[in-house]
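[job 4471] stage=fold_predict status=RUNNING
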Amino acid sequence: MSNAERYLEKEKLVLRWLLFFDYTNRKIISSLLGVKDGGLSSFYRSLNKKNYILMVQDPISISANKLIILTKSGFDYALTLNDDIDVEVLKYKKTIPPTMVRHQIKLQSYLVSMNIDSYSVVSDKLLRKRFNNNNSIIPDCIAVIDGERIGVEMELTRKKPSRIYYKFEMQVNSIISNESVCAKFIYVFENKSMRDNYQRLFDEEKWPLIEMFRSRYLQKESSESEFSFTLNDSIRSKFKFITSGDK
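[job 4471] inference complete, writing structure tokens
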């Protein structure tokens, strides 16, 4: 492969990643391309010169950290390079929601640490449009890992057990009914304490039956009820709980 061909392949990988995730940072791109930090300066200058990307201030950081986003020209060009993506479900975003930055960067960092590239992942942005009428809860992304479609959930904040169980139950039901958008689920946590809490709840023999009403998670049946939520070991084996440093 010539230098020009390698450059174009790197360009396509990065622009495709940005179509899925809207923004990223230099460290993630370096991992995505297998290049040491600081080794892509000329690559970024070229993308800037072509008006494909912008470097903008991270809205939640007081340091000099920058996020990489697509320009409108970069967005349009990325669509022409990736004709396998349904362009009808993608809209150009001009702004970065501060509440999602930490979550999205942590998610992307985990994905590249697992050597997942732009062709082996689909973000929830596309999934929510594609599976809008599906009953399963859409994971943060789906990645192809060891040949299987795995739903990845990045959990950074503590949630009430009722909300956790509701998501578990929806995901289990979708797998059982063969309506799931993926074969298995991996939950990724920043720390062992939160991971252990989810694992403890999941490992209970019976779960309270939860329903959602007007964005509230309500217990319909307790775990002691004969109508409690139960599942077999074959379904339990489809869920994994890890910290971000695990493989």
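[job 4471] summary: The chain has a mean pLDDT of 90.
[job 4471] exit 0
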